[in-house]
Amino acid sequence: MSETIISGTYSHFQILKTRKVAQMVIEFPIEQGEQFISKFGLPNTHEEKWVAVAWLRSQPVETNGKASRAIQQAGIMCKDIAFGTWLRDTRKFQINPANETEVQEVLRAILGVTSRADMRTNDDALERWETLYEQFKRQSEAG
After folding, report:
1. What are the pLDDT tens digits along the chain (143 aa)?
2. Distance in angstroms (rounded) separating the CA atoms of residues 31 and 50
3. Which distant-in-sequence residues (6+ apart) come within 8 Å of 64 by Cβ?
């Protein structure tokens, strides 16, 4: 059963008066989209599927905190050729610094995550990112 579980955040609720039903929207990282489709398929107007919703955590999802800034920062840095070059040269990865996808893959490997969004719940990965980013900034400023 656990192979059909995908977690996300509850983000929207609406009543459809004409159909006498309620809808809720669960958001999850886009990187999990393919996984979701492979497990649940696409909606079919001729065949509805029953699913369940479970409460996973009582604390609110962080939206503007340290992790959100780090996730955004990491995304921006993966597009920065200087950052990709620094990763290649200091971490000895064979990557093309101009290839954003390759830089993203290396960064995820260094952080030990499958998605930058994992930094929201993985304090170790968040700390590794902060250390890595500070090292890059220091070496870039030193020239």
Report:
1. 456 788 888 888 999 999 899 999 888 888 888 888 888 888 888 888 888 888 887 776 656 588 888 999 999 999 999 999 999 999 888 999 999 999 999 999 999 999 998 898 889 999 999 999 999 999 988 86
2. 24
3. none
